[in-house]
Structures are given as C-alpha cells and as structure tokens.
Amino acid sequence: MSAPTLGQPHWIAAPETLAVLDALEAAGGPDCARFVGGCVRNALLSRPVDDLDIATTLTPDQVTQALAAAGLRAVPTGIDHGTVTAISRHTPYEITTLRRDVTTDGRRATVAFTRDWAEDAQRRDFTLNALYARRDGSIYDPTGHGVADARAGRIVFVGEPEQRLREDYLRILRFFRFQAWFGRGEPDAAAVAACTALKAGVQGLAAERISKELIKLLAADDPRAAVRLMAQTSVLSQILPTAPDLARFEALVGIEADQLFETDPVLRLAALLPDDPAAAAALAERLRLSNIDRDRIVAALSPTPALKSWMSPREIRREVYRVGNAAFRDRAKLAWAASARTAATMQWRGLIALADGWTPPAFPLTGADVMNAGVPKGPLVGQVLREVEDWWIDHDFLDDKFSAIEKLKAVAQGIAY
Questions:
Q1: 158-239 belongs to which homologous superfamily?
Q2: What is the CATH topology of the domain spanning 1-152?
Q3: How far apart are CA 232 and CA 221, in angstroms?
Q4: Model pTM?
Q5: Which spans in 202-324 are helix H?
Q6: In the chain, which residues have pLDDT < 70?
C-alpha cells in the first residue's frame, strides 16, 4: 500500500509558500520544515485550508535569521513557545520549532526544543492533528493512526487521554469541538471517560479560552450530537450555570439546515440559555464575550412580548421598530425553535422575511416640535414626545407629519403645566 500523499495542492505550490520553504531549507537543509496540523488534516479530508502552520527543526532565532536572509518579514508572535510568523506576499505562515513539554499545569506548559519529529507529535492533542506533510505532499504520520482516524472520523487522543488533558484542560473542550466538526459514529470511549473524569479542570481555564472554543464548537454545521454528549458528561454544566435548553438548541440547528439559514454560533449559544436577559448578561460577562455578542444575546432572550407565527404585518412592524431588525430576527428564530417545528413553517419564514425587508421609518417629530407646541423645556417634553410616538406606532407609522403635529397639539393642550 502506497504512503498517503496530499499531492500538490495550490497552497503548497503557491510562490509565497515556496519562498518560505526555500528560506528555511537554505538554513536547515532539505526536509527541515513540514506542514503540520489543520492544513494537513483538512487537505487530506478535502476540506478548505485556511491557516498554514509549519513545524521545523530550526530554532526561533535561526528561523528569524533565515527569513531575513530571504527578504521575508518575521514576526515573533509566540517566541517563548518557539513560534515565529513569516509574512510572504502578505500571507502569514506560523512557524514553530519542534517541541517537547518539560512541565505542565493544566493551563500552560514549559517547553524545550527538539529535533525529533515523533517527540513533537507526542505533545499534540489528537492523532488527526499529529500529521505532517513535506513539500512534495507526502504525509508523515508518527502515531501510525492519524490518517486512518481522520478518514474514519475518529477523535482519538495521542497517547493516554488523561495525561493529555492534565497537560491542558482546554483539550476537554477541544475534544467536543473536533467531535462536532470531524467526528463520525460513536465517540472514542477512552476520550469520553477521560473528559468526564477531569471535567472540573475546565473551571480553571481563562474565560477567553473557554468562550473561543465554545463558539468554534457551535459554528460546526451540525454540533447537536457533540453538545448532547457535553451535557451527558456534565462538561457543559461546567460552562453554563443552568440546565441547557437542548430541545430549543437542536430545533434551531435543524431550522438553520432545513431553511438554508446561515450557521449562527452566537444565536445557538443563546438558544441554550433560559429566557432571562439578566442571567444571559452575567454569563456573557463571565465568559468575557464581546460587548456586541453580549448585547445581542441579551436582546434575543427578552421574554416579552412573546412572538407568534401568526402575527399580523402591523404587529411585526411594531416589534421591529421597538427592538430593531436584527434582534427581531433572532427572537423570531428562537420562538420558532421553541414551537412545533413541523407546524407553521411558512408563517415563520414569512414573518422573518417581512421583518428583514422592512426598514423602520424615523419618527417625524423632535423635542423642538414639542416645545414649539407650547410645552416648556423639561421632563414633559420627553413625556409628550413618547405619547405622540405611541400614537404614531399604533397608526402603523403614519407617513403624514401634519397629522403627527396635530396629534402633538392635542396632547400638549391636554397637559397641565
């Protein structure tokens, strides 16, 4: 049986890639640099390749000197861990010296450099990520299982699962993330057992690391089985403070697939949470989510008013005006997922389409108009303005400023100053 090979995909044959390899080999000799990890795995599985990582026997100083000699820019992005980023024709290449762990504490590791490719592979997480490819496309599989596991959709730890997890507890979440993206069939029993036994280690991780991994997991095309497994092993409860709404989450993923909606990891996270904006805000702060994501989740989980598939166009416009197109769309999808999915599909689609296609108009009056109607400057101005705006909304956003001014005069006359 012939050794597996990637052939010559465009990202290997690209001039900017060859320039980096040539620079490294000029300093370290043939085969001193190999592609590693995700780019090899994805190419093997005919999936898109985004990030290009290179492993090398050269030290970071030697890498930097080699790149400079070739006229390429070198950025010391992780120099303590042996990583230098090369920039070739505006394309980044993360270049890391072969390493072995010296000490680990479950969050970070102290490493030493090595020239042993197999030793470098032993510190990686899963067999399908411990794959290397030479510039001719031939694959080096030091564990002897990486290629087969990748092709079969098996997420298997390199070596002893508990040891890998004790080195970095983030690998617990990475196991479920890779299960969501690449796993097929029954998950590896030894990996599941190790993640279950050491699940408490997740709580000691930096919030940013947890949230980044969680969002990546939820961005998979269909993460339902992986999230269900996280709940069954109680790993999910280490992250979420309340019991997850798995039914709504799974229904939302199904709706996205059936209706060809864009995969939306942030809304999927919201679907797992209770309809409690305050609790959602607290979780977002704990996970150090961005302000944009926090505000979006909070708005999506507002329990009132409840959205129904049979809302009239007028009711839809009223709510879109109050919460905005994006928040209305999020809330509509969550309401759809919480309802009977097989019923009212066309109604829900029509509701969302109407909301997306309508641009809320600007309220035609200002505080100056209120004061021109005789209301003195002060809190009454806002009170009158809100009352007239409510009237304008109830009249389905009447496109008639004259009528709005007449209503303003009537309201102003009825107020005792």
A1: cca-adding enzyme, domain 2 (1.10.3090.10)
A2: Beta Polymerase; domain 2 (3.30.460)
A3: 21
A4: 0.90
A5: 207-218, 224-232, 246-258, 265-272, 277-286, 291-300, 313-323
A6: 1-2, 102-109, 340-343, 416-417
